[in-house]
Amino acid sequence: MASLLPPDALGQPASAPRKIGRLREFLYFAVRDKKIFVSLAIIATLLVVAFVGPMLRDYGPNDYVGPPAQGPSSEYWFGTTTFGQDVFVQFVHGVGATFFVGLLGGGLAAIVGMTVGFVAGYRGGLVDEVLNMLTNVVLVIPTLMVLIVIVAYVDARGLLIEAVFIGLTSWPWAARAIRAQTLSLRTREFVDLGRLSGQSTRQIIVGEIAPNMSSYLMLTFILLFGGAVLIAATLDFIGLGPTDGMSLGLMMNNAVLWSALQLGMWWWFIPPGIGIVAIVGSLYVLNVGLDQVFNPRLRKL
Amino acid sequence: MGTLALEGVNKVYRVGTFGGQTMHAVKDVTFEARPGQIISLIGESGSGKSTIGKMILRLASVSSGRILYDGQDVATLKSRELKPYRRKVQGVFQDPFSSYNPIFKADRVFGLIRDGFFPEVKGADWDERVHKALQGVSLDPDGVLGKYPHQLSGGQLQRMLVARALLLDIEFLVADEIISMLDASTRVDVLNLLGDLKAGGLGVLFVTHDLSLGNYISDQAIILRKGRIVERGPTATVFDQPTHPYTRMLLASVPALHGGHDSGALGQMDVVRDRQACLYHERYPGGDATAPASQANPTMVEVSAGHLVTCATVDEGGGCLQGGARQTAG
Amino acid sequence: MTLKVRDLRVHYTTLAGDVRALDGVSFDIADGEIMGLAGESGCGKTTLGNSLVRLDGRMRHVGGSVELDGTELPIWDSVAMDRHRFHTISVVPQYAMSALNPTRKIGRMAAEVIQSRGIRYASVKDQFERRLALVGLPERVLDLYPMELSGGMKQRVVMILSTLLDPSLLIADEITSALDVSTQKAVAEALVGLRDNQFVKSMIVITHDLSILHEVADTILIMYAGHLAEKAPTDVIINGPRHPYTKLLISSLPEVGVRFAERRLVGIPGRPPSLLDPPAGCRFRARCPLADAQCEELPPLVEIEPGHQVACWKVG
What we know:
Largest sheet of chain A: none
Order of helices and strands of chain C: EEEHEEHEHHHEHEHEEHHEE
Oligomer: heterotrimer
Helix content of chain A: 55-70%
Structural class of chain A: mainly alpha
Distance between the termini of chain A: 37 Å
Strand content of chain A: under 5%
Strand order of the largest sheet of chain C: 6-7-8-3-9-10-12-11
Distance between the termini of chain C: 31 Å
Number of domains of chain C: 1
Shape of chain C: globular
CATH topology of chain A: MetI-like fold
Low-confidence stretches of chain C: none
CATH topology of chain C: Rossmann fold
CATH superfamily of chain C: P-loop containing nucleotide triphosphate hydrolases
Mean pLDDT of chain C: 89
């Protein structure tokens, strides 16, 4: 058999060494990208705050400890509320609670949404029809009514129940979006090639389709996370949230409720506002940066 | 040994709202393929040629009929049972850039073969096999390994897919329009590769819409129209003595590089329909029941050795519209 | 009509730098001439077609001039070009067939297009129907939606619509590529008919398929990597090419009659250079069997015989 070795055409990049591991490659780009670096730094800082913060004071967020409605001072770093509660302590507990609800609620919604979306998109047919019906039913359920009914029967409510409830009701749009993407990726020939290589359905979804959508999945998770945070704040406001504890959403709503804006008590609502923006915003910027790492075509090589 | 035979294969799709209507994409297709031969499946869009390729690869289900490989019907096998079949029959598709997952390196396709079929082979051993396969398709391993698909050319990607198939000891390759998306100057080299592999004993089913490519590379040609085979036989015979009106119309429409359109032979597409008189009706009125071909395919008639043609004026039920006897399978 | 293109340079600006898609192309088209523009992917033929009407906003006109019937075309200015589009120079872009608005009947779409050019549809409607009939389309086509037409029919509708105002030059970009071979013939014949009936004066037919050009074109221009390789009458290009690239390309095309077992065709190994940072000198150098040190300098386009121009040091 004649061997026609194609000459190296001018303009072809030199062959890269073959054995660079994927993790090393990922880290190489991750460290060099400012967006990823900065956003991870912000999130890490807030996480540290959430863990370490509560240890800095030995009283709780709802304790009346100081003079009411005071601005930030050396003792009360974020000032006090109308009732003399320490805003800083509220803040650090709130950040922790917010992370918890966001991660758990958003994570649960992501898992359910992805499972439903992938299976419906890949399998098609009857499975697709059934899952679509399920999605539509959950979408249409008036979640508030259901929650009120639940609240009537369950006495003590913690963050966990709230997070689970949010997780089980906020996934339909994610399932729809993922299903649409899966449907289009399924027609690509590499899926056929995967089947010819003996890959099972699960292997194809997890190994071929999902990685192709990895930045999309991350963005979905971020939106679910942010959504969970905001839904939690709403529920907290109308009293359907946890019966104890503090969250950033609850802080903001308390501030509004007690006219902090009109009274000029900026230290009550600005820290939690910045907190929510910082968390959700950093996640978004992180996603944009990760998109470049995940998708080799977007890399500036 | 290693014969692929299709018998009465049909593919029916359900379309429309709630799947109420049906579309009959492949109608009653019967033919045989042997290793060491290239068969071209030639048809225009909508002819069902890709669907046949997919059914052979079991990427699409078979609505009815049999696909026999070495006597075993693979059309009804469950997905789990297909592995031994897939070691023998593989495919390469049209769009090289869609055949690779763009976020992984191109040589991952070799890794998938190893995971699926040779999990016990050691690293160095496997690398050597990959090198050999790449050299077998005239690719320099250092030039293509470790690269992402967008860093390689269409021709290189298609060759790598052939190399991937060669890692298994396949006997048949379904090549579905594999060069139609490549540049003209690289097409013929990939095509020659198929010819070389054939010389090594591989059987190829070459699906294409391009008559000149089919003529160049294949030993047997099958002409498809709207899901039905209208003519088949040795390539030289089909191209030199096209008998079915559709084949003749197709050949007349191809602009030859050095010849130009054969403007005299046949008019526009609208003129040539199945309603035109069947050319060999006198010789085989309503098909000849004693001719071996027409027992298996009631509507096909053997015009010369190995050269079969579908009656041009046949209705959906297999009856000859020119008044011949109605043929039934048995 | 005459088209004179001199040293046309068009680049695309990207994050990574300038893609030098067209780097100094010069040619003429005479009245009544159908010129085929052929080459492989990345050679710049679509860029050339689009730059003559300034269709793509990402293009940057870097140098050179285009003169149509004695007037210089302002191809660097999209707004100024609007005066000329459809009236003197018209384009059938590559995806035209699939770009028809699926919610508009053909007649209504045509009316909207004509109206947008500042012409009353009623004044051209008869002419439109007559021309559609000439290419084999019945009058009722105007009442149909695009999805009810076949590919060949849509292509012919688009062609007639683009030439309704009798432009001097029509640029047809890959109009037969997406069609079945049986309809390609009808569309190709319709194309020539446009010139023969004098609906357009001259045409540039862009395609990668040389055999179609054999049908329709009077002259063929072969491009490679943003440069012009050879220009000559059709049968000279097909039967007696001189540029090494053209020769290798023609000899690599299988046509009905040539069989692998009898004569093994050979392609051109390697691939075209990246236009982001193209090599100096002749861009075909890396793949050319005749290349040597002389080719490090860009060969000029030289007329080796009347009507036949080649850009290669090794010729003439």
